């Protein structure tokens, strides 16, 4: 089970949701210096996200985006801060 799991429903078509997801991902890369690989699928896109102490993944489909992350021992105390930052980004780009 992941240390963090956040699900956000959206009302975009898949192409618009992809555009929003890529904007959010670019902002996160610029702000936090994380490594991310975005892969488009037929019905679901996946993103692998890595930063020291955080191994994350996101899934995007026509209805929702899901973010999950496993935290290393030293990152666990930052769980609340990481979760709130992810939630803010999802709210901003998928509201």
Q: Helix coverage percent of residues?
A: 25-40%
Q: Assess the beta-strand content as a share of residues.
A: 25-35%
How are the strands ordered across the major sheet?
A: 1-5-4-3-2
Number of contiguous helices: 2
**Poorly predicted tracts of residues:** none
Q: Specify the overall morphology.
A: globular
N-end to C-end Cα span? 27 Å
How would you spell out the order of helices and strands?
Answer: EHEEEEH
Major sheet size, sense and barrel closure: 5 strands, antiparallel
Radius of gyration, in Å, reads 13 Å
Structural class: alpha+beta
Number of strands: 5
Mean pLDDT: 95
Overview of this protein structure:
It is a single chain. The chain is of the alpha+beta class and 95 residues long. The protein has helices spanning 14-32, 79-94; strands spanning 4-9, 35-39, 45-51, 54-60, 64-71. A five-stranded antiparallel β-sheet has the order 1-5-4-3-2, covered by helices on one side. The longest helix is centred in the N-terminal third of the chain and has 19 residues, at 14-32. The protein is globular.
Quickly list its features.
single chain; 95 residues; alpha+beta; 5-stranded antiparallel beta sheet; 2 helices; 37% helix
């Amino acid at each position: 089970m992941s240390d963090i799991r956040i699900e956000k429903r959206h009302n975009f078509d898949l192409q618009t949701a992809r555009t929003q997801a890529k904007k959010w991902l670019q902002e996160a890369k610029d702000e936090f210096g994380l490594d991310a690989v975005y892969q488009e699928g037929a019905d679901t896109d996946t993103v692998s996200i890595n930063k020291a102490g955080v191994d994350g993944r996101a899934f995007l489909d026509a209805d929702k985006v899901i973010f999950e992350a496993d935290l290393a021992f030293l990152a666990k105390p930052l769980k609340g801060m990481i979760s709130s930052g992810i939630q803010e980004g999802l709210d901003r780009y998928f509201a």
